[in-house]
Structures are given as C-alpha cells and as structure tokens.
Design a protein that fits this description.
By secondary structure, the protein is mostly helical. It contains 1 helix and no strands.
C-alpha cells in the first residue's frame, strides 16, 4: 500500500497499533495457557512423587515388621 498523504499515514499507524494490541493479547493468552498447563503437570508430578514415597514408606515397614510364624 502506497502512502500518499498524512491521512493514509495516520490510518496505517492506527492499523498497526491495533494489530500490535491484538497480538499482545494473543501472546498473553498463549503464555497463560502454557503456564497453566505447566502448573497442572507439576502438581500431578508432585502428587505422584509424594504418593510413591509414602506408599514405599508404608509397605517397607510392613515387610520389615512381618514376622513368620513356623
């Protein structure tokens, strides 16, 4: 698009500012989705790790204290 006068320049500037705001919002939404997904995965990983740790602790005590009666 060839800019012929100041009105075209102002119109193009407004158009670029609008596009800039739109892309900033789109980027913020994408970043929010990425961090949300990361937080959910981290929470699930922490739960699994904690559950395995506690279950190993409980079941290892059962094996140690298990007495065979013959």
């Amino acid at each position: 698009m060839a800019l012929k006068n100041m009105k075209d320049v102002k119109r193009k500037k407004e158009q670029l500012e609008f596009q800039s705001k739109f892309y900033k919002k789109e980027l913020a939404i994408s970043a929010n989705g990425i961090f949300s997904n990361f937080a959910e995965n981290f929470r699930a990983l922490a739960f699994d790790f904690g559950f395995r740790l506690v279950s190993r602790l409980i079941f290892s005590r059962r094996k140690k204290h298990h007495v065979k009666i013959e």
